[in-house]
Give the backbone structure.
Amino acid sequence: MAISYDEVEVGTELPAQSFPVTRDTLVRYAGASGDFNPIHWNEKFALEVGLPDVIAHGMFTMAEAIRVVTDWVGDPAAVVEYGVRFTRPVPVPNDGVGAVIEVSGKVAKLLDDRKVQIDLLATTGGQKVLGLSRAVVRLA
Amino acid sequence: MALDPSFIGRTYPPTEPYEVGREKIREFAVAVGDGNPAYTDPEAAKALGHPDVIAPPTFPFVLTYRAAAQVVEDPELGLDFSRVVHGDQKFAYTRPVRAGDRLSVVVTIDNIKSLAGNDVLTVRGEVTDATGEHVVTSVMTLVARAADEAGE
C-alpha cells in the first residue's frame, strides 16, 4: 500500500529498524559491491592504519539507512535523492555478535510535486554515524 | 602535498558500458539484507510499473566507484589513495537502475579544496543508459588526510 502525500505531515515518523552487521556481512558486501578495501575485512591492516577495529563500509551503512525509507514507501523508485555524510565509522568486532546499526527517520519537510524530505538518524552504540542523512521521496 | 586546483572541471572519458544483470542485483540485495521483492522478483517489479527488477538506491555506487578509479589513479593528479576516506555521498535519480541496463559513467572533478590541511575532492559521476538518457548522478567527496595526521 503506497503512502500518500496527504497522509503525512512534518514530524511523521517512519518505523525504525535495527540492522545487525558482522564480519561475514562485510565480506559479503565487499564481494557484492566490489569494494575490497582491507579496512573492511583485515583486522591487522585496520589496526595498522589507526582504526579501532575492522569497520563497516560507509556505503553498507548508507544502504541500510535507506531501507527505513524504502520499506515504508514500498516502491524504492520513489526515492529521488539520497545523501549522507560519513561522520563516524562503525567498528565491527570479531566476537560473533558484531555491531548493530539503528536507523530512524521522520518527515522533515513537505516539498512540491508530492515530494517530502526525510531526515534519517543512524547510530551504533548510541553514537551517530551518519550526518546530513536525507532522502527526498515522491509519495503517491 | 596539496592537490592542484587546476584539475577542477576535468572530465574523464565515458566508461565502457556496464550491463546490469538480475543476478547481480540479487547478490547486492542479499548482501545488504534487503528483501524488497522489487529487487528479485520480476513480477513484483512489474506490479510497481518497472519493466524488470530494479536495483537498491545505493547500487549505482558499484559503477561510480569503479569509474572514479580514473581520478584516484590519475598519475597527473597524484592522489595518495592510502590516505583517502569517503567523506560524503549523494545520489540524484531520474529512475532506478534496472536489470538489462547498459550503463556508462562520465566522471568529472567538480571541486578540489583544502580543509584543515586535508584535500577534499568532489567527484561527480553521471550515469546514462544505452540511449543516452540520464539514470542517476552520484556525487562523492573524498578526503585525503594530511600526511602528518597519519596513524591517528
About this structure: The longest helix of chain A spans residues 23-33.
